[in-house]
Amino acid sequence: MKKNSNLIELVNIETVYEGERLPVIYDVNLKVEPGEFISIIGPNGAGKTTLLETINGLLTYSKGKGFVFGKEIKKHKSEIRKEIGYVIQNFEMDPLAPFLCKDIVMSGRTGKIGTFRFARKKDWDKVWYSMGLVGMIDFANRPIGKLSGGEFQKILLSRALAQNPKLLLLDEPFSNLDYASRKQVETLLNRIHEKNNITILIVSHDLNFVPSRCKRIIVLEHGKIIMDGSREKILKSEIINSIFNGNGGKI
Amino acid sequence: MIDFPSTLLITSILGALLAGFACSTTGAFVVRMNLSSIGYLMSHAAFAGAAFGLMISIDPIIGAIFFSFGISLVLGPLAEKARLESNIVIGFLFSFMIALAFIFLNFIPGTAASARALRILWGSIFSVSTTDLFLLSIFSFIIIVFVVIFYKELIAIMFNRKLAESSGVNTRLYYFAVLFLTGIAVSLSIRIVGGLLVFALIINPTSTAYQFFFDFKKIFIFSPIIGIVSCLVGFWLSLISDFPIGASIVLISAIVFTIAIIFSPKRKKGKSKIKKVLA
Ligand SMILES: Nc1ncnc2c1ncn2[C@@H]1O[C@H](COP(=O)(O)OP(=O)(O)OP(=O)(O)O)[C@@H](O)[C@H]1O
Ligand SMILES: [Mg+2]
């Protein structure tokens, strides 16, 4: 079947939040091949987060059909999630939270290790490795609530990487990072993408930060994919400039 | 102080110790999983259930387990739906449970009715039977096994439920399990600590431990230790002062919590360092 050649396939997807009448994203058709590196951009409220969470099944689509790894999302949620790393958009962390960074990174592997099983040495190796990748190894024994926004974001990224995912969904991973850290994380993403043949979807509302290996851009507005194409084509287009008020296009 | 037969004393001490362990261990999870208000309601449901048990002349513990299980079935799904006004529902059910409890207590048969009713209200350590001890021991064992086996899932959920779910954890199952275990801990301790105060024993020791540690493993170890110590000291206080046992235990654990807040290293702002710099 053709379906299996796509890593993600969404057909006429529509997602409604519980208790709402109108869908937040609709008529979404998306095919992603293994190994693609895609940026999803759009203004606040466009539905970017909703799209990511529809892909990993945290939100259930109300119409259409969705497949990840050739499996229908609705039916195989927990199975496909083990292979998807997700970095959530900023959330408030209680400063007194009683968790150490290394345990948080390890928690990314929870599903992968499996119920009734314990973390082994190879799991910890993966944790140290992915903390090293984001340059946070010195923070292993620090309480998670005592990190700066950027440090926290890097821990979340290494949590997702520790999962050794086939698909990485990143929701605004740059939002709290300073220029140097952005560069560092961008280089890291490029490297991971190059080495591991991983598929990456990265959400951002900042046109100025599309990682260099990212060859495809999807533009969301008001819940619809209004553009989907090569990086060059999208960045040159007029619509982009009107959406982002002349703020974009300069890469 | 009166003289007690030593077996009675030992049974009571063991009862206090096990109730302290059971409640404060479940508490470590209840507090972090934001189940406090549901747990609070559940302890009152257990109280109503115990009163119901007394009314129809069965073991109040059975009534308590039955009621708290019912509540976790009703409220488990509620905890899922952020959109439903769960606080309103909890407030409503809370007063409803108290009303039920008082009605049941009113109908307890027999002449010693009021004494027995007061016992499940305030707690009475000398009504602890060996069956209670046996059940509490089994429960303590089960909760240790539960935590050891599902430690990584529980940590993932307590950090962030959405992220846990996104890495393939069926978070709903664990919420239910924790609610259910809380119901049992409350039901088994109700005769010792009393229905009105048992929930303090779930919240206070954990909240105390939270003031000192940033590593959940330590909280999981110290929360029961603080719970047990509070129970034993509370027991001693109630012996020498003739306070009701539940009240003394809660009093002690509240004092410990207050002291913890005052001396919590988490709240210190490193004054000494600043002084050094200035000098
Ligand atoms: N839990 C919810 N219930 C109802 N509506 C929601 C919910 N979460 C988001 N929405 C609505 O869905 C729309 C899209 O939200 P979404 O979070 O996907 O936007 P986004 O593109 O990620 O925006 P941002 O750039 O601000 O992160 C918004 O209009 C928002 O109001
Ligand atoms: Mg968003």
Q: What is the gist of this entry?
A:
The complex is a heterodimer of chains A (251) and B (279). Chain A has 251 residues and is an alpha/beta fold.
Description:
The complex is a heterodimer of chains A (251) and B (279). With 251 residues, chain A is an alpha/beta fold. Chain A folds into two domains: 149 residues, P-loop containing nucleotide triphosphate hydrolases (Rossmann fold, 3-Layer(aba) Sandwich); 75 residues, no CATH class. Chain A is built from nine helices and ten strands. In chain A, strand 4 and strand 5 form a beta hairpin. In chain A, helix 5 packs across helix 6. The C terminus of chain B is likely disordered. The longest helix of chain B has 30 residues. In chain B, 80% of the residues lie in helices and 0% in strands. Chain B has a domain of 191 residues: ABC transporter involved in vitamin B12 uptake, BtuC (Orthogonal Bundle). Chain B has 279 residues and is mainly α. The termini of chain B are far apart. The chains are: A alpha/beta (251), B mainly alpha (279). The structure holds adenosine-5'-triphosphate (ATP) and magnesium ion (MG).
The largest sheet of chain A is: 6 strands, mixed
CATH class of the largest domain in chain A: Alpha Beta
Give the biggest sheet of chain B. Answer: none
Strand content of chain B: under 5%
> What class would the helix/strand composition of chain A place it in?
alpha/beta
Roughly what percent helix of chain B? over 70%
Q: What do we call the CATH homologous superfamily of the largest domain in chain A?
A: P-loop containing nucleotide triphosphate hydrolases
Overall geometric form of chain A:
globular
Give the uncertain stretches of chain B in residue-range form: 272-279
List the helices and strands and how they pair.
The complex is a heterodimer of chains A (251) and B (279).
Chain A: E1 8-15, E2 25-32, E3 37-41, H1 48-55, E4 61-68, E5 71-72, H2 77-81, E6 84-87, H3 101-107, H4 110-113, H5 121-133, H6 149-162, E7 167-171, H7 179-196, E8 199-204, E9 216-221, E10 224-230, H8 231-236, H9 238-243
Parallel strand pairs in A: 3-8, 3-9, 6-7, 7-8
Antiparallel strand pairs in A: 1-2, 1-4, 4-5, 9-10
Helix pairs in contact in A: 3-6, 5-6
Chain B: H1 6-32, H2 36-55, H3 60-80, H4 86-106, H5 113-122, H6 130-159, H7 161-166, H8 171-193, H9 198-210, H10 216-241, H11 245-263, H12 271-278
Helix pairs in contact in B: 1-6, 1-8, 1-9, 1-10, 2-3, 2-4, 2-5, 2-8, 3-8, 5-8, 6-8, 8-9, 9-10, 9-11, 10-11
Bound molecules: adenosine-5'-triphosphate and magnesium ion (MG).
Magnesium ion (MG) binds next to helix 1 of chain A.
